[in-house]
Amino acid sequence: RRRRPPPPQSPLDKVVAQEELSLPQLAGRWFLVGMASRCSYLAEHSHRLEATAVTVTVLDGQILAVSTFRKLDGMCWEIRQRYLPAQAHRRFLLKGRGYGSKVDVVVGETDHSTYAILYYQKGQTISVKLYGRTSRVSDAIADKFEQRVRAIGLSEDVTYYFPPYGFCDSADEFHILDGELQI
Prior knowledge:
There is one protein chain. By secondary structure, the protein is mainly β. The chain has one domain (21-162): Lipocalin, CATH 2.40.128.20. The protein contains 3 helices and 10 strands, in the order αβαβββββββαββ.
């Protein structure tokens, strides 16, 4: 009998989660500053990136309710998601619709007051996002983000920075989506 090969190591297994993570301190408004991803949609539409803001609320002391505000076709939309606690500490699970649509989320690094670097993995595909409490971060933080991106095998040619202006603060009741953001 032949043995099955071991499952491939998950790219997220190489990521070390933030040691001292305080969910109450993570709550509040964040701005998406940068993202590294091999997403083909992102590559093809990177010239149309829109300013993106996120509001994080902590539910039951362990679930992150995340509202993402961004423009699509000139209209402000709100995408609501819940990051559920995973078995491993400081790791979360974002469930999408349908089989195999879960996203593993790791808070890789944050100082809670200036920046946060989060890793997202769906299947064997990994992406990294840099959030700031303001729409611009220091060069030192941007350099740290780029180092983390290279450490998981992504490069500058799949790293995108978002505009620091034109944010949505809200969306009307007709422009609210519950579920998974596809990027």
